[in-house]
Structure prediction request, 1026 residues.
Amino acid sequence: MIQLKEIDKYIESRFQRIFLLKGIHLEIKEGEFLTLMGPSGAGKSTLLNILGLLDEDYAGDYFFGEKNIRSMKERERSNLHKSEFGYIFQAYHLIDELTVYENIETPLLYRKVPSSERKSIIAELLDRFNMVAKKDLFPAQLSGGQQQLVGIARAIAGRPRVLLADEPTGNLHSAQAKEIMEVFQELHREGTTIIQASHARENAEYGTRLINLLDGKIESDEKI
Amino acid sequence: MLKNYFKIAWRNLLRNKVRTTIHILGLSLGIAICFLIFNIVWHAYSFDNFHPDKDRIYRITTMNDYGDMQYQYPAAPGPLGEVIGDELVGVELAGRLYTLPETHASIPSSDRNFGRKNYIAFADQGFFQVFPRKWLAGSPEDALSEPNQVVISERSAQVYFPNEDYAQILGKEMRYVDSDTIYATISGIVEDYEENSDIVFQDFISFPTIKRYEKEDWYGLHSWNNINSSSQLFLKTADGYTESEIQKGLTAISEKHYEEEEGETTFGLEPLSELHFSSGLLDETGTSKALIKGLLIVGGIILILACLNFINLETAQAINRAKEVGIRKALGGDRSQLVLQFLSETYLIVIFSVLVGLVFGDLILKSFQSYLPSGFSIPYLAGFNLAFLFIFSLLLTLISGFYPATVLANYRPQRALKGEKEGVGRFSFGVFLRKNLTILQFTASLIFLVMVLVINSQMKYINSQPVGFEKDAVVYAYLPFMAGYEKASFLRDRVRQLNYVEGASLGGDAISSAGIWTSDVRVPNDTSEVEFFTQVKNVDSAFVSVNGVQLLAGRNLSNQDNEVLVNEQFLKEAGISNPQQIIGTSIDFRTDPQLVVGVMRDFNSRSLKEEIMPMIFFQQPDYFNVISIKLSDGINLASAMTGLRDAFSTIYPFEEVDYLFLDEQIQKFYEEDMRIQTILSFASILAILISGMGLFGLSSFTISQRMKEISLRKILGASLGQILGLISKEYVILTGVSFGLAAYPTYWMAQQVLESYAYRISMPYFQFVLGGLMLLSLCLIIVGTHAWVAARTNPAEILKDE
Prediction:
């Protein structure tokens, strides 16, 4: 489904190039639950951003399905980005001015989903994560775990095929983290491709594949 | 989607109340000013645009070219009106109008008086063909063809003959008195114009009446060389003729009827659309294009300042919203959707500003009522105003919102989410732009401020200048026109007997007046003769004592004919240095030789914008129009005025009198300048207010950005003063740069203003410095308060968060 070929990402500094990623070769199949591991600065987030089309400033080729991302037009790329990807962040990144309901609604608005359909999707998600009573609260009124649940609900609202999560449990304590990972597992079982970046080995246990990154290079790639 | 945009916009507005208040106040001031100016301009251009074929209607103007001097009059000589139909090709219709200001209207049969009115004129049939109206009684075919006919408008009819049928009013007789008495039979009643029109006349006396009384001479209609501003000629060109073709025909006529040596006289065409901006019909209705232009410029500047404020503050605060942009982009929002979102937020602010602006506009309108044309009001719900507000709010949204929205929408998501600021290098376009916008605002504010200060000191100077005569405690009044010397002298003698009157003098006009009479004079000097133009004043022998003018040499006028006084400037012009030398000289002035009996010290008979002209004083009692009265000191003014009024009505029982204070009239010379001063003061207050608010928002923001730096410096031992200095330094530099930018344009404009005065202060550089210091201190107060609060905050509180 996803194929990366010879991906380089670097910053031009005054005297040298600093490589954030170097020579990344990666193939990800549909339905995989992949964990990127590695110390800080290994390039996990950078790789996720490239995979999620948030960063277009790199060398090498990126195929999504049959198509090369580089040869796509701006509009096509934007549509692909909207329809296929969902994002989950370490710091949740909910919009502070919007309620739980409206936060989940936002990606649907950008996808121009009709109003009635929007309502039923959101109702279903609120129900699934037991947040019906909290739908009119603002993010600041929720605990970290609850915020991350809203983040997940928002990410999957548009029914993306690929879910990208950057340290989804990094700001949570272990009980909350466990809950989040179980949700991931369930989503994976339903067929969603999940790519997560994580520090914690135990999070990788929920997945099907583990890639270790070090200094912008793939150290190891193992099936679990 | 839009609902969502507006919802988040609304929440943002509530969350950041300082920002919202500044934005709404700033923009609403700009909107209020623009809305008012739009209405003033709209009003000015709404005049006389309803007449059929208005594009083909012109007024004839006359130009006199004497080589070194050109005069243009919005009037036509009488004979042109007679011949234009025959001699000019391409004229479909021509209409004559002769205005009769200050004419008395009454009904002879019932002896009902309606007082002096300005709305009476002579008109011919052609006039009603060029400007057709609906006839309520009578018909245009025969209404004005005979002498002694008058057509009145509905409004006049209702005043003269209330509750009478229009058919019954026909045939009744009216009496009009200007200098002479005209009896006229009502031959028609026409509808008044509902629309705005400068053709405000209501009683139209038939043109043939003038001929019947052989009064062409009196009304100045007899000769090609006599151009009287009352004499108006309108024409409608035939279809298919261009303006230049008609103009050629007019040139041919002027060449035929004028001889070369009298200076060249030509005629011009003034389109009807220009009528409102030109003078001539009735002064009270016109608007000057210069005023409109000035207002547009001031309004434009205020609006630009308001927009700059918005742009400035929004781009500065954009960083606060970077995270939101990042999230939205990650969630699939694309650039255009984000731009639209931020624009709709701006639009919401603009809508609130429009509402607040309308309130401001109304307040401003109320306080500036006297500067606006009478009868001007704002039809808030009129289609054009709603359309203006709608389009204007959209435009304003685009102008002020587009750049900040683009800046926001351009944030790259992966960076914005990490909290990185874009372009924090040595040179950041955003910061550069912000500083420049602030400088621009300061510059505009400074220009306004310094101009106000300069005009202020010039006006103070003018008011403190000695004019050469006593202007306090002198009142004057206009006598009924051409009522005769005998009655005037009765009044003078009667007034003189009042115990609070020190003296009374009759004359052609008051010692200081806007009107001017000039004539040429020939003065013998040694063996040759000097010829020059001189100002002429018609005065009596009491002139000198009533006005407290000094005689330098010779004696006052006696009651002899052919005696004149001259002033010092007159001597200078004639090349005579010793005042005694001219006494007893006979000079060539008007028809007979005149004997100079005395020399007066120079005084300013006109505004101090002009130099003192050579002046000659003689007496011509038949043309005494004004009585000037010197009152004693320390009297009860109210009872004195009652006594003076009584005296007047004893002599002229049918007339109303209005005593004017000389010093107040002199102030009127500078009315225009005072208006400019008031408008500029207002504009500069607005400009400073808006810029001040902008600075308030901006400095509060930049200081909050630098809180960490400030806290660290405090920990490292910086004193309160050092921190204040650190923060203020930047703004001192900004003010300095603005001062540099503002200096030259202000200097240039101040020079233009000062040069319009013959008596002027030298360029008041001190006012420039003063203006600069005023702005600087305002700026330091605003920034200083923020900085003070920042410097007083406990650094531990700030650094704890890091």
